[in-house]
Specification:
This protein is mostly helical. The protein has 16 helices and 2 strands.
Length: 368
C-alpha cells in the first residue's frame, strides 16, 4: 500500500506550527489555547463565502469518514493522516467566519478535531478501539454539521442554488485530488485517491438529500453512479473529469440562476486557467501581507492557505516538478510557518517576494 510522504510531512508541519506559536508566547500550547489565540486575534470579517465554507466543512466530514474506514481495516497511518489533514489546511480557512458566528463553538470544534486526531496519533499512549474511534468520529461529524448550520444563514442553507454550488465545488476539488492519486489506472498516492472519492461521496449525498433538484434528476443520479463505479475501478483521470463536467453541466441547468450561468461559467473558466490561478495567488499574497502588517495573523494565514490550497495546487502539474516543489516549500511550508510563529514583517515580505519570483518563472514557462 502506497503512502504519500508529502502528506506525512504536512502532518509534521501542523505540529511545528503549533509548537512555534507556543515558543512565541512562552508556554506549551494546547488545542484549547490554540482556539483562544484564534479568537483573540480575529477581527470581524465580512463577505463570507458560504459555498466555500460549507464545502470546506463537507471535506472535513469526508476526511473523518475515510479515517473511520481506515481505522476499521486497521490502517492507523491513513486514519491519522485523514484526521490531521483538516487541522493542517482547512481549519485556518474556517476559523474566522466560525469565530464571528460563535466563538465558543469555534474553540470546542477545534478541540474536538485535535482530540480525534490525537486518538490515532502514532504517539498516542493507548490504542483506541475501532468502536471508540467510530463514536468519537461521529461526534465530530455531528459537530461539523452544527458548524455549517451556525455559520451559513438558514435562508441560504439547503436552498437549491446553494447546494448545487456546494456540490460543484466538492466535485471540482475531488477531481484535482483524484488526478493526483491515480495515474494510468493505478493508485500512486492512496491519500489523494481516498480524498477524491470521499469528496465525491459527500457531493453525491448532498445531491440525494436535495430533493428540489428535479430537472434531469435521473440523468444526474445515473452520472453519479457511473462516477462511483469509475472511481472504484480506478479509471483514468480524464474519464473522471469528463463525468464530473457532465454532472456540473446538468446541475447548472437545474439552478434558478440559469440566466447568469454563461457569465459565471466564463469567469470560472478564466479563474481555472493557470494564468488565472497565478493572478489569484499574487492578489491573495498582497492581502495576506496587508493583514499581517495590520497584526491580523489569523486572516493572513487564512489567505496564505487559500493561495496554496485553492490556487497553487491547481498549477503544479503544468509548471513541472521543480517549480512546483519550490513554490510548495515557500507557500505551504515556509510562509504559513512564519505567519503562525509571528515572524518579523521583513521576513514575510522576503518570502512573498521569493514566491512571486517562482510565479514569474511559472508564467514564462506557460508562455513558451
Amino acid at each position: 500500500m502506497f503512502i504519500n510522504t508529502r502528506h506525512e510531512n504536512k502532518a509534521v508541519i501542523a505540529v511545528v506550527i503549533v509548537a512555534a506559536i507556543s515558543l512565541v508566547i512562552g508556554n506549551t500550547i494546547s488545542p484549547s489555547s490554540f482556539a483562544q489565540i484564534n479568537q483573540t486575534n480575529t477581527t470581524q470579517s465580512n463577505g463570507t463565502d458560504y459555498v466555500k465554507f460549507h464545502s470546506n466543512i463537507e471535506q472535513i466530514i469526508g476526511h473523518i469518514e475515510k479515517a473511520v474506514y481506515n481505522k476499521n481495516i486497521n490502517n492507523n497511518t491513513l486514519a491519522y493522516l485523514h484526521t490531521s489533514h483538516p487541522i493542517e489546511e482547512v481549519v485556518s480557512l474556517i476559523t474566522i467566519p466560525l469565530n464571528n458566528a460563535d466563538p465558543k463553538l469555534n474553540g470546542t470544534y477545534i478541540n474536538e478535531l485535535y482530540a480525534l486526531s490525537n486518538s490515532v496519533s502514532p504517539t498516542a499512549p493507548n490504542n483506541i478501539t475501532n468502536e471508540e474511534f467510530g463514536k468519537q468520529a461521529q461526534s465530530s461529524v455531528d459537530s461539523s454539521n452544527k458548524v455549517i448550520s451556525t455559520v451559513v444563514p438558514a435562508k441560504t442553507l439547503n436552498t437549491t442554488d446553494h447546494n448545487i454550488a456546494v456540490i460543484q465545488d466538492l466535485l471540482t476539488t475531488s477531481e484535482e485530488e483524484y488526478g493526483e492519486g491515480v495515474q494510468d489506472g493505478k493508485i500512486t498516492m492512496i491519500l489523494e485517491y481516498q480524498d477524491g472519492s470521499s469528496f465525491m461521496d459527500r457531493a453525491h449525498k448532498i445531491f440525494n438529500d436535495t430533493k428540489s433538484i428535479t430537472k434531469e434528476r435521473e440523468t444526474i443520479s445515473a452520472l453519479f453512479n457511473n462516477l462511483t463505479t469509475s472511481v472504484q475501478q480506478q479509471k483514468n483521470s480524464s474519464e473522471i473529469e469528463h463525468t464530473i463536467d457532465e454532472i456540473n453541466h446538468e446541475l447548472s441547468e437545474s439552478s434558478s440562476t440559469t440566466a447568469a450561468n454563461a457569465t459565471i461559467t466564463a469567469a470560472a473558466a478564466n479563474e481555472k486557467s493557470p494564468q488565472g490561478y497565478i493572478s489569484n495567488i499574487r492578489s491573495l499574497l498582497d492581502q495576506a501581507m496587508a493583514s499581517y502588517s495590520a497584526n491580523d495573523a489569523t486572516k493572513a494565514e487564512e489567505l496564505a492557505t487559500t493561495a496554496y490550497l485553492d490556487n497553487f495546487e491547481h498549477i503544479e502539474d503544468p509548471i513541472g516538478k521543480d517549480l512546483s516543489d519550490q513554490g510548495e516549500s515557500l507557500l505551504r511550508e515556509q510562509l504559513r510557518t512564519q505567519i503562525s510563529s509571528n515572524a518579523p514583517v521583513e521576513e514575510i515580505k522576503q518570502t512573498i517576494s521569493d514566491i512571486n519570483m517562482v510565479l514569474d518563472k511559472a508564467e514564462n514557462l506557460l508562455k513558451s
